[in-house]
Amino acid sequence: MSNDPVAPTVVQVVDSMERMGSGPYPGLRRSSARGVCFVGTFTPTGQAAGLSTAAHFQHRPVPVTVRFSNSEGNPHVPDAAPVTRGMATRFHLPDGTHTDLLGITVPLFVASTPAEFHGLTEALRPDAVDGRPDPAAVQAHVTAHPQLAAAITQVPPVPVSYGSAAYWAVHAFIWVDAVGARQPVRYRWEPEAGRAELTAEEAATRAADYLTREFHERLRHGPAAFTLHAQLGEDGDPTHDPTVAWPEERKELTIGRLELTTPVEDQEHWDGQKFDPTRLTAGIELSDDPVLAFRAHAYAESFSRRSRHS
What we know:
Helices cover 23% and strands 24% of the residues. It contains eight helices and ten strands. It has helices spanning 10-20, 114-123, 135-144, 149-152, 200-203, 210-219, 267-271, 290-307; strands spanning 35-44, 62-70, 85-92, 98-104, 167-168, 173-176, 182-191, 224-232, 252-263, 284-286. Strands 1, 2, 3, 4, 5, 6, 7, 8, 9 and 10 form a ten-stranded antiparallel β-sheet that branches. Helix 1 packs parallel to helix 2 (114-123).
């Protein structure tokens, strides 16, 4: 955090996220407030087995629980809104522990430091009269941080289905093999059904909860499948900055296949779980990304508040 001398506190960031979402909404997440959970199986291909000792990358299938969500802290935002979607995956490992992987439907995060993220959430605070952010405040933030323009102006797709979107983990992680060799990676989930999105006209006709309805109906006809890809970083590829993409020509591995089969039996329990991108397992370590490290504390603060129903 030394490169971020005016780093905000976790309380300041979560407070700002609540204001951005016109909240707080007691008992709900400060982002991704509305979601739905499913169960399935992840089967590794073995392509990562020589680069990481992580149990779910070897040769044994593991059960998973996945929560799909919309990014907003306001649970009343309809599914057809042009916001990012989330895919939080919990791998239940053979030794009884678990590890989480969180992805969103855009490839870049919107800030490279906690201070930049806090500044953006403040700029996106809705006006008390019309409920919309002040465009001038957002533009002032981009002008002050021109290196963030590409990330902030990403346009997330409005997907046909949770099962027709790609999900990027946005941060770099470090794989560690059996002899301690280290390999930076970035993850991406690809839908086997292919990417498909709605036009604005099509989105306007969809029900407020169409993504949840559609995915339940999809599973009645068979599993929904995704493949997990890992882009391998090379010398000079930034591991500390989630606003910068690595070159497209970097080698990529297909490290596993996920099949989702049914909704979880207890939606309330699983919807209340704290999925955390820093909950790792042996063979995977955090990179030097300050936003990734900060997220663990922000998630803990949010979880504490919703556990108190505040």
